[in-house]
Write a structure and sequence with these properties.
Helices cover 36% and strands 21% of the residues. The protein is an alpha+beta fold. The protein has two domains: 119 residues, no CATH class; 52 residues, no CATH class. A hairpin with a 2-residue loop joins strand 2 and strand 3. The N and C termini lie far apart (64 Å).
Length: 187
C-alpha cells in the first residue's frame, strides 16, 4: 500500500480569516453545500453569481455600502470623504475586480439547543468553517530584505486596529483599550 505524502500550504503564524456558517445537519443539504464549496475557487462562476444577485446583495448588505463601491479601495483613505449610495452598475464593476482569497474549508458538527420564546429545540448542527488567506503586496519585499517578522507585526496591528468593515467603531472601552493600548477603565 502506497501512502501519499501531503504538503500543507499553511504555516504557523500566517494570517488568515475563518468564517463559520451553521446549517442544520440534514442529508438533503449535503450535495448543495459540497457543490457550493467545490465551486468556491471558480472565479468566473463566483463573479457571475455576484452580478446575477447584485440587487439582493445590495439589499442584504446595505449596512456596508463601501463593499460595492468600485473606486473605494483605489481611493486613498484621506480622500474618502463620503459614502456613496451603491448602484447595481457600480456593484457589478466592483465584482469584476474581485480576487478570491478562499483557500478551503473544514466541517464539524455539534449538538445544540436553541430557544424560541419558552420552547427549546434540540438539533444536530453542521459547522462549515471557510478558510480565507491574505497575502500582503509587501511580502516579496519583506522576504527579500529578510524582515518578514516586521511586516507580520505591522499586519497584525493593522488588521486588529483597522480591520473593521466600513470603519465600524469598537464595541466598548475594554475592546478599544486592547486595540489601541489604552488603559481599561476600572469599575
Amino acid at each position: 500500500m502506497k501512502i501519499e505524502q501531503t504538503m500543507y500550504p499553511f504555516a504557523r503564524g500566517e494570517r488568515g480569516l475563518f468564517v463559520e456558517v451553521y446549517f442544520p445537519k440534514k442529508a438533503e443539504f449535503q450535495a448543495g453545500i459540497f457543490n457550493t464549496l467545490q465551486n468556491g475557487k471558480n472565479i468566473k462562476l463566483i463573479k457571475a453569481y455576484f452580478k446575477g444577485y447584485a440587487q439582493k446583495l445590495l439589499t442584504e448588505l446595505a449596512l456596508y455600502p463601501n463593499l460595492f463601491d468600485p473606486d473605494w479601495y483605489k481611493t486613498p483613505p484621506t480622500e474618502r470623504v463620503e459614502i456613496r449610495t451603491p448602484t447595481i452598475a457600480g456593484a457589478r464593476r466592483r465584482f469584476d475586480a474581485y480576487v478570491s482569497q478562499f483557500h478551503g474549508w473544514s466541517i464539524d458538527e455539534v449538538d445544540g439547543m436553541f430557544f424560541k420564546g419558552e420552547k427549546v429545540y434540540e438539533e444536530r448542527t453542521q459547522i462549515i468553517r471557510l478558510i480565507f488567506r491574505f497575502k500582503s503586496r509587501y511580502s516579496r519585499v519583506a522576504e527579500r530584505e529578510n524582515c518578514i517578522d516586521v511586516l507580520r507585526s505591522i499586519l497584525y496591528y493593522a488588521i486588529t486596529a483597522r480591520g473593521f468593515v466600513s470603519g465600524e467603531a469598537v464595541w466598548d472601552e475594554a475592546h478599544k483599550g486592547a486595540i489601541y493600548g489604552e488603559p481599561c477603565p476600572v469599575g
